[in-house]
Protein: Guanylate kinase
Organism: Leucobacter viscericola
Amino acid sequence: MPEVDRVAANRAAIAARRARADLKQRLRSGEVSPLRVLEQSLVPGTPAATLRITDFLLSFPAIGATKLVRLLETLDISDKKRLGGLGKLQRERLEGFVRDRLGAVPQGERPPLTVLAGPTAVGKGTVAAYIRDHYPEVRLSVSATTRPPRPGEVEGQHYFFVDDEGFDRMLAADELLEWATVHNKYRYGTPRGPVLAAGEANELMLLEIDLQGARQVRASMPEARLVFLAPPSWDELVNRLVGRGTEDEEERTRRLETAKVELASAEEFDEIIVNDEVPRAALRLVELMRG
Ligand SMILES: Nc1ncnc2c1ncn2[C@@H]1O[C@H](COP(=O)(O)OP(=O)(O)OP(=O)(O)O)[C@@H](O)[C@H]1O
Ligand SMILES: Nc1nc2c(ncn2[C@@H]2O[C@H](COP(=O)(O)O)[C@@H](O)[C@H]2O)c(=O)[nH]1
């Protein structure tokens, strides 16, 4: 290729990359609607048409790397695709997904933040994980904690694992919406940024935290909805704690002491859901969140 053509081609490629980056930014900030981008992507050569499906989906605030993989599988779209190269059926599925998400929360109405609390081993984590896997419209807050990871726990997915100095730094920088020392042992806190971002984006946001944290959220965000997850019985709660097998006898005793106090506080909450079966409890919670 003659030098002059190569220079022109380079310039065009740089300009196209810039236009795509600009579009990604506007998608993320909500300045441009994803439906509009899908529509524009039908025109070959536009920034929308050359936008990668991965970048498009990652612009939704609640979609991260893990959800992205699942979502692409559900939509049956390769991660190599660009919007302009989607087949008819792929485009229809993608558009359906976008419409569902936009329809889940009416624009202009800010859904209240939902806090799920309850005694140890009642199943908060299990119900939250079920919601993460089955209700992609719900965004889950990832807490920071000074507790060491349990086997299988993933940094950034289950918790942000930090040492005491790291936690102190987050506190000093006012990065936590609430925090507490739970079961008199480790500190746990909710990063403020993602909660605010979810509010801005009209996203359903769930915090799975302890009673002290729930009270702090109520104080700072009175519009938050507090949901108490209750066990079917005390014996079942003890069975779940023992059955989980992640705490030694001393830690179990400590947690059950806290649990008695927490059970007595159920009336402070806006709603009580009994976790008899996980899918049922999860559905009830999501229905509450959807209003
Ligand atoms: N509905 C249910 N029926 C039977 N077992 C359940 C149910 N929900 C959760 N479990 C089991 O109970 C145990 C405790 O659940 P989980 O760890 O989710 O509790 P948690 O409330 O998050 O506890 P913690 O506050 O201590 O972190 C787990 O072994 C889980 O599999
Ligand atoms: N106040 C907060 N409590 C939190 C937060 N993240 C989790 N938790 C609660 O801690 C206990 C113990 O959790 P585990 O994972 O060590 O078993 C449990 O009750 C959680 O709900 C938080 O950010 N703030």
Q: What stands out?
A: The radius of gyration is 22 Å. The chain has a mean pLDDT of 89.
